[in-house]
Amino acid sequence: MKYDLPSALTVTSDGSVRTVLINRPDDLNAVNQDLHWALANVWRQLAADREASVVILTGAGRAFSAGGDLDWITSFLEDPVARDDSIREGSEIIEEMLRFPLPVIAAINGPAVGLGCSIAVLCDVVLMSENAYLADPHVAVGLTAGDGGAAFWPLLTPILRSREYLYTGDRISAAHAVELGLATRTVSADGLLSEARRVADRFARQPREALHSTKRVVNMYLSQALAGPLQAGFAAEVASMQSADHRERLLALARRDGSR
After folding, report:
1. Separation of alpha carbons 125 and 142, rounded Å
2. CA 149 to CA 162: how far, in whole Å?
3. What distances in angstroms separate CA 198 from CA 127, 191, 193, 254, one per listed residue?
4. CA 200 → CA 25, 156, 167, 170, 189, distances in Å?
5. C-alpha separations of 24 from 53, 227, 257 in Å
6. pTM over 0.85
7. Widest CA span of the chain, in angstroms?
8. End-to-end alpha-carbon separation of the chain, Å?
9. Contact 35, 212 (CB under 8 A)
10. Measured between alpha carbons, how far is 181 from 56 in angstroms, rounded to an integer?
11. Which of these, 186, 189, 173, lies nearest to 133 by C-alpha position?
12. Sheet-wide strand order for 17-22
């Protein structure tokens, strides 16, 4: 099957396993407009691939995804139409992942930040390189953690454990992410992709309908539990995008990034 995607997100086939590669390594796989669109649209294309049975999701280079591309996010300060479009598309990314019928194995090869963290913890199995980490720094840049963290994390880990990291945006090491329930297990950096493939091959050998229907039931629970928090989270994120705190912190980040 031919996939219609920008170069920022590629799909390769090996038997019934599809590897989705977040492919902006020079920018630590930060999510720009093209990649954001691709993350919203790739799941329907994968579901239409009748030869596919399992998906591995990983990043090119040193990062899984460093979150939102700073230039793209900064442009929203003067472009409310693009800002609102990004929120609608962000909601679509989450909804499409929840609806997606095939098992997805995240191979977290480096930092998974912001939206990168959200799509990682939405996967069915989350394998983390020992030197990788998770972080949701929305609040630190004046934003509501609306595209995942505030809604998902309390389903995966005790609320009392998740609040500190959501409120501060501090990094969560791979080992601690497993302890918190935000990742399945750690794997050596050298063995990450081979372990992801081992798990994918095992899933591929399972009875297809039984596996898919089991995922459907699990995700039905998730969809129901997330319906209210996600809607409220995205609405709050839009409001926080218009705040003075967000503008000030984002422009400070842009100035610091430009001075490097």
Report:
1. 31
2. 9
3. 12, 10, 9, 41
4. 24, 22, 35, 31, 18
5. 26, 31, 18
6. yes
7. 55
8. 43
9. no
10. 20
11. 173
12. 9-14, 17-22, 54-59, 104-108, 125-129, 185-187
Backbone dihedral angles phi then psi of residue 202, each to the nearest 5 degrees: -65, -45
Tokens of 247: 């503008």
Structure tokens at 26: 């020079």
Q: Please list the helix, strand and coil fractions of the chain in percent, rounded to the nearest 5, in that order.
A: 55, 15, 30
Per the CB < 8 A criterion, the answer to whether 37 and 9 are in contact is no
Q: What is the pLDDT of residues 145-181, one digit of tens each?
A: 877 788 888 888 888 888 999 999 999 999 999 999 9
Tell me what pLDDT residue 143 has: 93
Backbone angles phi, psi at 17, to 5 degrees: -95, 130
